[in-house]
Each structure stands twice: as C-alpha cells, then as structure tokens.
Design brief:
By secondary structure, this protein is mainly β. It has one helix and six strands, in the order H-E-E-E-E-E-E. The mean pLDDT is 95.
C-alpha cells in the first residue's frame, strides 16, 4: 500500500459524482439515451487504500507490439512500454502498461477474480499520466480505486480492447467500478 494523501477518499468520491453526472447528462455519455432516465449512477466498491499500491517500473528497451482483441472481434495494436511490479496482501504481481502513440497516457487493462462476477466481463482499465519519462526502478502509484469499465460495458456500439492474458491477475481487486 502506498501513502494515502489527506482527502484522498473525498477526492475519489467527488470524481465519481462528476463521472456519474457526465454519464447521466452529457450527449457523449456511453449510456444509451433511452436508458438514462433509469440511470442513478455507477456502482463502485468503497474507497479502499489497500488497493492503492506502489509499483516499481521496468521500462521496455524496445517496446514490443501487442495485438489486443476487442469486444467486437477486431484487433487493435498497442506497444508494451512498461511493466509495473507491486504487492497486494504480501503477494507479488505484475501488470504491463501499453501505449499506441508516444504521447498517450499509459494504458493498463486488467482482469482479476472479480471479472465477470462483480465487475464487467471484459475487464477494467486504468490510465497513468506520469509527470516525467519513466525509468527503470522508478516508483509510481497504481490506484485500483480508479479502475473503470470501458464504454463497451454500457453499449455495444463501442469497440474496446480486452486485457491480454499477461494482465490477468490471480487475485481479487475489490476496488474501482463494479459491473453496470
């Protein structure tokens, strides 16, 4: 677990309220217009600092291309640019981070033991936007409380990358968004 800044849980709740308002009211919401009248917010796990972990970075010397399957049967190409090593409940895990372009945020799709049970069957996502270029041995915070469902969880009109097997965690991550 990483250090938890003052007001962290309040900021997380405020961010969730803002997202719920966007999903409820904005014309670019992934919630189909005909379903918005019944929409009363997304379902979230309670904020839990246990799932805010410090991860050690290993940068890929030459980022390898990875073809990710998507929710509509196509594939999309990313580059595996970094590996994050971290612990949850004393057990070591790894997640790969991906980019399509050099300026993109680091995309971290993952599955865990909640996938298809308590969370969306296609997996969940996190994104990191480091302030500076990452180097081997750097430490970053992975906050699974920020894990979110891709838009395809709300409507089949979206095509979403599915987490590659390298990002299937053999643990339960009861943090972030639940299944809609």
């Amino acid at each position: 677990m990483s250090d938890v800044p003052d007001g962290w849980a309040d900021e997380l709740r405020a961010s969730r309220e803002e997202k719920d308002a966007f999903f409820d009211e904005h014309r670019q919401s992934p919630i189909p217009p005909e379903d918005r009248e019944d929409f009363d917010g997304l379902d979230y796990f309670d904020p839990d600092p246990t799932y805010r972990v410090t991860a050690t970075v290993t940068v890929a010397d030459s980022p390898e291309p990875v073809e990710m399957e998507t929710s509509d049967g196509r594939t999309v190409r990313y580059r595996r640019v970094v590996t994050f090593e971290f612990e949850i409940d004393g057990e070591a895990y790894e997640l790969a981070g991906y980019r399509q372009d050099a300026d993109d945020a680091i995309f971290v799709p993952f599955r865990d033991k909640t996938t298809g049970q308590q969370t969306y069957s296609g997996g969940r996502y996190m994104e990191l936007e480091p302030d500076e270029t990452l180097a081997d041995g750097d430490e970053v915070v992975l906050d699974f409380n920020l894990a979110y469902n891709p838009f395809c969880a709300f409507s089949e009109t979206f095509s979403c990358p599915l987490p590659p097997e390298a990002n299937w965690l053999d643990t339960t991550i009861e943090a972030g968004e639940r299944e809609y």
